[in-house]
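The records we work with from here on pair a chain with its fold. These numbers are not coordinates but entries in a learned vocabulary of local backbone shapes. To see the layout at work, look at the sequence and tokens printed below.
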Amino acid sequence: MQEKQSNIYYRHYDLPAHFPVIGLLGDFWKSYPEPLTRMHFHNCMEIGLLISGKGMLHIHGRELPFEAPCLVLAPPNVPHAHSVEEGRVCCWNWIYVDPQAMSPGLSPRLSNKLGEYQRQMDGESCILPGSEYPEILSVMRMIVAEMEGAQAHYHHIVRELFTTLFLLLLRSCSGTAGNDRYISNQLGCIAPAIAHIAENYMEEISIEQLSRLCHVSTSHFRRLFKQVLGWSPLDYVQMVRIDRACALLYNCNHSVTEIGLRVGYPSPSSFNRQFRRIHGISPSRWRQKVRSEENPMVTAYFNSLPPSSFQFFPTEYRQTHTP
């Protein structure tokens, strides 16, 4: 079945410069059968260790089955989604990583090959069954255990394990690429605009500014952005602002007005209007509702973020992280 491109959204992960990896680990990361309504992409490599369950990876216009134990990979800037087989529950550990930055000891040649590997990942190479790749899954389990334990020197151990993992991935790579690269190429064209929005969403952003960053005309930029992501550029900015506001509403005790200002809304009325448009309720009601619900996945996600992600700065709020 061909992927629908009308609902694609961006997940941004602020990987720490000194240790460019984020792990969403533990027993809470479960997914359930539900309609596939939208796809996503992100700025780094996603590695999912499937502990139990069965489902489908939707990527490059294809539906590819996976079953535990396995790894499910997604390269940067490639739209994808996961669906769960009816009657099943998928339990995951998730890793988001910059492979080259995480493996500085690789030679330039191998580092370049690792970058090429990510760019050429087709559907089949995104799923690594444990029965066929036991060494790769074993190394991945060791990475998860080290990151969960966080004992002395674990940063160094995790780096070495990632280097081993990436070398094993290169060894397993057939070197063949899929034919469907249209969306990935178009994402590359608008990537400067997406990155600018992720960094500067709290400031005033114009279509003209974004189109200049992408070196295309304003009209072409509007068409391209809408075609790839399914939103107009300015609607996408609103979505990112509200997404960041949700993180703050959940995790901070600052007033709704203050949070609205910090994510780029000049008045409480404009913040409330946009929030209601996207979520159907007011920011205050959303905060009460989400905080009152026992949702271990939401709690685990926000608890996994570094404290600085929710720090309020005197003049601007820069350090962000998106679910």
Notes: Confidence is low (pLDDT under 50) at residues 1-6, 175-182, 300-323. The two ends are 27 Å apart (CA to CA). The first strand starts at residue 8 and ends at 11.
